[in-house]
Automatic annotation (TrEMBL), chain A:
Residue intervals passing through the bilayer: 62-81, 93-113, 119-140, 161-185, 214-236
Protein name: NitT/TauT family transport system permease protein
Keyword vocabulary terms for this entry: Cell membrane, Membrane, Transmembrane, Transmembrane helix, Transport
Family: Belongs to the binding-protein-dependent transport system permease family.
Matching PANTHER family: ABC TRANSPORTER PERMEASE PROTEIN MJ0413-RELATED (PTHR30151:SF0), ALKANE SULFONATE ABC TRANSPORTER-RELATED, MEMBRANE SUBUNIT (PTHR30151)
Pfam families for the chain: BPD_transp_1
TrEMBL record, chain B:
Residues covered by the ABC transporter domain: 3-234
Keyword set, alphabetical order: ATP-binding, Nucleotide-binding, Transport
MF annotations from Gene Ontology: ATP binding
Protein name in the entry: NitT/TauT family transport system ATP-binding protein
Gene3D superfamilies found in the cross-reference section: P-loop containing nucleotide triphosphate hydrolases
Organism from which the protein derives: Planomicrobium stackebrandtii
CDD domains in the record: ABC_NrtD_SsuB_transporters (cd03293)
Length: 251, 262
C-alpha cells in the first residue's frame, strides 16, 4: 500500500471515530466539539474573511521574521566559524540563549517595541536566529578538508576560497538551518500572537477561546498544523532532499 | 633537475608531545617529463612527501625546488589528483574542470579548454552531469582533466586509483599512460601497489617506514607497452617485494608491540 493511501485511511478513521464519539456523546460538545462543527466554524471564518486576514497577517510577520533570522543567523554563524575568539565568547552566549524559548522575551520586547507588530516580529526573529547561527557555524566548520586542499592546489585561497568553495560546500547545513529556523519561528509566532493584538491566527485562537468558541479554537489549531506540515513537506524537505542528493550526502 | 628535494625532514609531535619522525633525510631529484612512482607501505610518509611538493604541507627542515623555484605554497604549476576525486558537488563536470581557469581566461576559452581535456579522458559525453551521477572511475577522470586543464608543469597523484575496482583501475592505467605520452607532463605518482608502479613508471622510488626514508631508486627499463613483457615485470616485482617485506614486517611488529603494550 502506498504511504499516501495509508495516510488517507488513517486520517479518515480518526475523523470518523471523533465524529461518532460526539454523536454518541462519549464527551460533551463544549469540551470537544465534533468535526462537523469545527468544519462549520472554519467555513464561516473563511466566508467572512477573518481567517483569510489572519493568515495574511501571520504570514507577513513570519516572512519578515524568518528572512531577518536567516540573514542575521548566516552573518553571525560565519563570524563564529571564522573567529575562534568570537566562538569562545559570543558562541557560548548563543548556545545559552538557544535553549531559552523565544516567547519569554515577549515582556521585554513589549517594553522596547510596544504591544504591536514590533514585539511579535522580534520574538519570531529570535525564534529562528539561534538555530540558523548554529547550523551555519557547523556547516562552515565541517567543510571537507579535501575540498579546501584541492581548491588550494588550483590557485584558490583567502576570500576566493571562502566564497567559491567553503560557502557552497556548506549549503546543505544552510538549508537545514533555514528549515529549523522556519519551524522555530512558526511556533514563536503563534505564541507571540496568542499574547498580543490581532489580526493573526494566534490572536483569533485566543479570541475564540475567550468567547468559549471551542470549535473555532480547534479549527485554528488545525490550520496551524496543516500550514506547518505543508510548508515543511512541500518546500523545505523538497529543497533539502535535492541539495543532499546533489551534494552526495544521501545515497 | 626539474624537481629537487634536498635533505627533507618532517617531525610531528603527537599528543604526548613525543617527536615522531615521518620523513628522514629525503633527497630526491626528478627530471622533466619523467614518470616517477613513490612506492612504500602505509605510514612511510610518501603522501606527506607529495603534499610537500604540492605546497600543502611544510617540512621541518630541507627544501623543495620545482622548476627553479622554492616551494612555499600551493600553485597552479603543480596539479594534484587525490585518492578521492574531490570534485565540487555543486558544479557540473564542465564547471568543475573550468574551476582553476576562471581567473586567467575568458569563459569561452575556458570552456574550449575544458572540452579538450574532457575529451582526453573520454568524458566528452558527460559535460552537464553532476559528480553524484558519475561512477568513481569517471569522477577520477574528471579530476585528472581538471588538473591537466590548468596546464601544470607537474602532475602529482596521490594513490589516484586506490579506491577503484580492479577493471576500472586497469583501464585508467592505460589512459593515464596515453595522456602522459601525449602531454609529456612530469608525473609523480604515489602508490602502495608494486604492480601499478612497475606498469606505469620510468623510475620507482622505494620508501621504507619508521622513519620514512628512501630505500632505493629503481629505473624501470621495460619497453612500453609493458603488458607484453610479463617475465621482466614479474622479476622486478619479486625484487621489490623482497625489499619491502622487511619494511612491512617492521610495521606489523610495531603494531603488535603496541597492542601488547596497551
Amino acid at each position: 500500500m502506498k504511504p499516501a493511501v495509508k495516510r488517507i485511511i488513517f486520517f479518515a478513521a480518526l475523523i470518523v471515530f471523533w465524529e461518532l464519539g460526539s454523536r454518541f456523546e462519549l464527551w460533551h460538545e463544549t469540551i470537544l466539539p465534533s468535526p462537523v462543527s469545527v468544519y462549520d466554524s472554519l467555513v464561516a471564518g473563511f466566508a467572512d474573511m477573518t481567517l483569510v486576514y489572519d493568515l495574511a497577517a501571520s504570514f507577513r510577520r513570519l516572512l519578515i521574521g524568518l528572512v531577518a533570522a536567516v540573514i542575521i543567523g548566516t552573518g553571525v554563524g560565519i563570524l563564529l566559524a571564522r573567529s575562534k575568539t568570537a566562538d569562545e565568547t559570543l558562541g557560548t552566549l548563543v548556545l545559552a540563549l538557544q535553549s531559552v524559548p523565544s516567547i519569554v522575551w515577549l515582556p521585554l520586547a513589549m517594553m522596547w517595541f510596544g504591544l504591536g507588530e514590533g514585539s511579535i516580529i522580534f520574538v519570531v526573529i529570535l525564534g529562528g536566529t539561534f538555530v540558523m547561527i548554529l547550523n551555519v557555524r557547523t556547516g562552515i566548520k565541517n567543510v571537507d578538508p579535501l575540498f579546501i586542499k584541492a581548491a588550494r592546489t588550483m590557485g584558490s585561497n583567502g576570500l576566493d576560497l571562502f566564497i567559491k568553495v567553503i560557502i557552497p560546500a556548506s549549503v546543505p547545513y544552510f538549508v537545514t538551518g533555514a528549515r529549523l529556523a522556519w519551524a522555530f519561528a512558526w511556533r514563536a509566532l503563534m505564541a507571540g500572537e496568542l499574547l498580543s493584538s490581532g489580526p493573526g491566527l494566534g490572536y483569533t485562537l485566543r479570541y475564540a477561546s475567550d468567547f468559549g468558541n471551542m470549535s473555532l479554537v480547534i479549527g485554528v489549531m488545525i490550520i496551524i498544523g496543516v500550514v506547518g506540515a505543508i510548508v515543511d513537506l512541500m518546500i523545505f524537505q523538497r529543497i533539502e532532499n535535492n541539495v543532499l542528493k546533489r551534494w552526495g550526502l544521501e545515497t | 633537475m626539474f624537481i629537487e628535494a634536498k635533505q627533507i625532514n618532517k617531525v610531528y609531535f603527537d599528543k604526548n608531545n613525543k617527536p615522531n619522525t615521518v620523513l628522514k633525510d629525503i633527497d630526491l631529484s626528478i627530471q622533466k617529463g619523467e614518470f616517477v612512482s613513490i612506492l612504500g607501505p602505509s605510514g612511510c610518509g610518501k603522501s606527506t612527501l607529495l603534499s610537500m611538493i604540492a605546497g600543502l604541507v611544510s617540512s621541518t627542515s630541507g627544501e623543495i625546488i620545482v622548476d627553479g623555484k622554492k616551494v612555499v605554497k600551493p600553485g597552479k604549476d603543480r596539479g594534484m589528483v587525490f585518492q578521492q576525486a574531490a570534485l565540487f558537488p555543486w558544479m557540473n563536470v564542465t564547471e568543475n574542470v573550468m574551476f582553476p581557469l576562471r581567473k586567467e581566461m575568458s569563459k569561452k576559452e575556458g570552456l574550449e579548454r575544458a572540452q579538450h581535456f574532457l575529451k582526453m579522458v573520454q568524458l566528452s559525453n558527460y559535460p552537464s552531469h553532476y559528480p553524484h551521477e558519475l561512477s568513481g572511475g569517471m569522477q577520477q577522470r574528471v579530476s585528472i582533466a581538471r588538473s591537466l586543464a590548468m596546464d601544470p608543469a607537474v602532475l602529482l597523484m596521490d594513490e589516484p586509483f586506490g579506491a577503484l575496482d580492479e577493471q576500472t583501475r586497469s583501464r585508467l592505467h592505460g589512459q593515464l599512460e596515453e595522456i602522459w605520452i601525449d602531454t609529456k607532463k612530469t608525473i609523480v605518482f604515489v602508490t602502495h601497489s608494486i604492480s601499478e608502479s612497475i606498469k606505469l613508471s620510468d623510475r620507482i622510488i622505494v620508501m621504507g617506514t619508521r622513519p620514512g626514508t628512501i630505500l632505493t631508486d629503481i629505473t624501470v627499463d621495460i619497453p612500453r607497452p609493458r603488458e607484453q613483457h610479463r617475465q621482466q615485470i614479474a622479476a622486478l616485482e619479486e625484487q621489490i617485494m623482497g625489499l619491502l617485506k622487511t619494511e612491512i614486517d617492521k610495521v606489523i611488529d610495531e603494531e603488535q608491540a603496541y597492542e601488547a603494550g596497551s
